[in-house]
Every structure is written in structure tokens, then in C-alpha cells.
């Protein structure tokens, strides 16, 4: 049975056009889960990961707005909350769908910590904007009072930026493996994992946001997956993206993909991490394959007739 790590992008978890209520999020997850259970039904062994950008951003807003009533939680704790929230919805909806199709598989979410290096260059240069927009005056106060790094974000206001360090090690990897070996459908490294650092033989949380595509690749390698699928808003990755000479990519080998990377075809922070994670996964062991596609094309992509496939 082929083992697949499926990384769910933002739009597999929420509809950008509707108010992000709990009900609306559940509806999107219901749609997403149908596609996933189709794959399980076909006999693939799935391990699920997901992003948390919009969700953790909202949790941060809720915490900051409520700070005068009850203390705001730091970013690592907000990340943990987002894993719990999304994992809860996935467990419920996936559980219902499996049951309705007569598939007897338990589902479990693992609050996953991912070790990063405190000396990672990303800590010197935070780049990832999160949470609400502030005025210049508010930004000044937050910089002093909370030590936030705040930058002007494309004319829209001031925003906190956090580091996005490289994931090094998944703390709960043995738990995840044990569950997989025991037929459990696991949801792990949500939002790229809760960032932690090692200090004097102990680990502790650190304020950062790990890229979920890179963390999913790490997980896929460690559980010896055959395929890494990154589900996103586009059916394929493209070269000359958004230009008149745009060309969608079908099956690409790692050498060609590296060439496209060096030519700057993939946007940092969106398609680039997927492509880089995809190349590294394929190169980590012979026979491994990466697919970048959208939810509704995933079945075709597994059959080789859609998506960008890195081999
Ligand atoms: P996710 O939430 O799935 O991680 P992202 O927004 O981070 O989604 O990344 C996917 C997006 O990357 C696509 O929707 C597309 O707008 C953008 N993108 C940037 N460069 C490319 C490219 N070369 N080919 C395809 N999509 C690209
Ligand atoms: Mg992304």
C-alpha cells in the first residue's frame, strides 16, 4: 500500500470569500475530506498535514484584542491552538465520512512540535507577516512593549513579521510512526509544526512560523512515504507564471526543476517552498515522487494525467 503525505493548503481548509465562521470552515473541510476518503478508498495509506496561515492569524488577533481581559498567548501557543482547532474539525468530518462509507479506520491529530535551530538565519531576518494591521503609532508601542518586529506591508499598514526557520526534527515522530503502523489516519505537523528549540537537553517554544511544505517533506522522509502531495489553489506549477508565455509543468525531473528554481520562476513564500520541498523529497531516496496539484485534480494526478509531478 503506497504511503502518501498529503499537505493541505489554505484553500482546502477555508473559503476565502465567506466569513470564516466555524460552520463555514466545517463546510470546506467536508468537501476536502470527500477527496481524501476517495484516496483512502482506493487503497492509499494517507498521512495528513496542513497549513494554518489564516487560522493562526485570526487566533493572534483574538488574543491581542482580548489581552485587556485575559492574557494574550505567545505565537507558539497560538500555533498549537490552530493545530487543535483544525485537527478537531478534520477528525470529526473525516470520522463521519469514513463511517458513512463503511471504512473502519481511527483518526488522530498529533499536537506536533518541530525543532528549529536558534541560530537559523531566519531569526535575524523575520519575513513572515502575521496577524492584524497596525497604525504607525500602534506599531511603535508594540515594538517597545512586546519587542515585536514590525514592517510596513505593501501600503496596507504595519504588520508584525516573524521568522520562518528551517524545520530540523519532528519531536513526536515515534508517536506518529506507531499510530501509522497501527492503521490510524494521522493528522500531524499542522501549520508546519509548533516551533521549538533545544536548550540544555530540554525543548521550549519559540515565536516563529515554520513553512508547512518543508515540514511535510521532513515528515514524509521520516515515515518513509512514497509520495508527497501538496494540494494548493493551482492545478500545476508554472514557469513564467502569470506572464503571456506562462507554461504549466507536467512531469519534470529534479535537474530541470532546479534549473527553473535558479531562473526564479517560483515565488518565495508560496510556490518556491513547495518546489524545493518536492525536489528534496524526490532526491532523498530512489522511487520517491512529488505531486503539486489542486484538490479536484488529485485523483488524475495520482494516475499521472494531471498536476506537476516531480520524479
Ligand atoms: P498554500 O496555502 O497551498 O501553501 P500558497 O498561496 O502558499 O498556497 O502557494 C500557492 C500559490 O503560489 C498559487 O496559488 C499561485 O498563486 C502562487 N504561485 C507563485 N508562483 C507560481 C508558479 N510559478 N506556478 C504556480 N503558482 C505559483
Ligand atoms: Mg503556502
Please tell me about this protein's structure.
This protein is α/β, with parallel strands linked by helices and 311 residues long. It has 2 domains: 3-116 and 167-310, Acetylglutamate kinase-like (Carbamate kinase, 3-Layer(aba) Sandwich); 128-162, no CATH class. 38% of the residues lie in helices and 22% in strands. It has helices spanning 22-41, 53-65, 75-100, 136-146, 173-181, 212-222, 254-262, 271-284, 298-302, and strands spanning 3-8, 45-50, 107-109, 113-115, 128-134, 149-152, 158-162, 169-170, 185-187, 194-199, 202-205, 227-231, 238-239, 247-248, 251-252, 289-293, 308-310. It has an 8-stranded mixed sheet with strand order 3-9-2-1-12-16-17-15, with helices on both faces. A 4-stranded mixed sheet has the order 8-4-10-11. Strands 5-7-6 form a 3-stranded antiparallel sheet. Helix 1 links the parallel strand 1 (3-8) and strand 2 (45-50). The chain is globular, with a radius of gyration of 19 Å. The two termini are 19 Å apart. The mean pLDDT is 95. Residues 9-10, 51, 232-234, 237-238, 241, 265-267, 270-271 line the site of adenosine-5'-diphosphate (ADP).
